[in-house]
Amino acid sequence: MDATTVLASVSGSIATVGYGLAAIGPAIGVGIVVGKTIEGVARQPELAGRLQVLMWIGIAFTEALAFIGIATAFIFGY
């Protein structure tokens, strides 16, 4: 068994591995957004409502990266 045979057998799951790696970025991003919102509410509780709205918008934009990652996996993987 040579290197090209091994590469050919692994290439079927490259899209799955790629999406798994692409999901790490949005997960870290959501953690940062939520953490910073909690810090902001702790500093100024009267802004909790506005910060929560901004947090949900930030989470939506961050999760859009995950959707782009899964779409890319389907486009280039199959």
Structure description:
It contains four helices and no strands. The radius of gyration is 19 Å and the shape is elongated. Helix 2 runs antiparallel to helix 4 and helix 3 (24-43) packs antiparallel against helix 4. It has 78 residues and is mainly alpha-helical. The two termini are 25 Å apart.
Instruction: Tell the overall outline.
Output: elongated
Share in β-strands: under 5%
Q: What is the N-to-C succession of helices and strands?
A: HHHH
Largest sheet: none
Radius of gyration: 19 Å
Oligomer: single chain
Helix content: over 70%
Average pLDDT works out at: 82
Total DSSP E strands: 0
**Estimated structural class:** mainly alpha
What's the N-to-C terminus distance? Answer: 25 Å
Unreliable parts: none
> How many helix segments?
4
Which key terms come to mind for this protein?
transport, cell membrane, hydrogen ion transport, 78 residues, single chain
Mind sketching the topology for me?
Layout: H1 3-10, H2 14-22, H3 24-43, H4 48-77
Helix pairs in contact: 2-4, 3-4
Could you give a short description of this structure?
This protein has 78 residues and is mainly alpha-helical. It has helices spanning 3-10, 14-22, 24-43, 48-77. α3 (24-43) packs antiparallel against α4 (48-77).
